[in-house]
Amino acid sequence: MKLTDLSGDISEWLSGAGPMSDVVLSSRIRLARNVAGHNFVSRSSSTEKTQVLETLKEVLLSIELGDERFYIGIDQASDLTRNFLVERHLISRHHALAKGPRGAVIARHEFFTGMINEEDHLRMQVLKSGCQLSRCAELINRIDDLVEQKVEYAFSCRYGYLTACPTNVGSGIRISVMLHLPALKMTGHLEKFLNATKDMNLAVRGLFGEGTEAAGDLYQVSNQVTLGISEENLVRDFEAKVIPEIVEYENAARQKLLSDQPEVLDDKISRATALLQNAHLISSQEALFLLSHLRLGIGIHRTLGVTTPAIDRVCALFGDDLHRGNASIVTINRLLMLTLPAHLQLNHGQVLETTQRDALRAKLIRAALSGSS
Description:
By secondary structure, the protein is α+β, with helices and mostly antiparallel strands. It has 14 helices and 10 strands.
């Protein structure tokens, strides 16, 4: 299977489906596991890493997931391939930049990735669109059970699953939800939100996880502690309480913008629309920033049922899309992904200089917003 089979479109987890999808782009659950009888990755020799890699690769390719899978040797992959997989959220930046034998087993429809020899021997993740944490939990638990039938995990009766990072010890679970929070930022309430998440033992990271910035007003919110907390309670708390409260804060901020600062809202959306429709050079960061404002306008129209002159103009770009479920959100989600640097280059078939990427990105966006091909 070729990566170009994936790179030309978005995956299911960005489909705009699922509950609260105007604010919640995706849900992810990741499990950290290590193989009993082997040193952790940071203490392993190259030979031992290779042994673990071959064992887990065989297991992940043999279990029944209901979807075709393929393997990529991350240590042997090109920089462009690794960057694409990071942009696609199929591997972590740590996995892309690490050294030594390592790889990834990926489901054809991208709902599952098994990263081998990342920080732990195995980090498995399941991704779904919108707020679907219960569904993610069902899938990842079934996969975990299948793997554990063939591999003995490093496990302590006292502490639970043993992991390289102490914060993952216990259930080894990391729940992560990607959120679009432009209104909280525009209304000046983002800092208050970030402080509140600290009090709730939540971690807030940027678009590509730890150490990255929140480009395009996109944030990943995840749990920080797993020891002494059951997976079921974590998932239930996130899905029933934590995420709905954050979505409520964002929607309240959107309503406040409409009532208190309609001119500011319209100006930002209008400027974004004009630049995206006419610019011939757009950087990746600028594209994420501007597309975020268009997505905000569509979200306000869909969720709050309110329009302004600028929102009307954005809606006119999509025509009947607004009356066909989530089609307009999908268009924006698609541009958010396909205009990233590695996606542009992979789809173009060659490595490009910065200015060439900026020109190609602008052309792609202009075509999408004009309805041309």
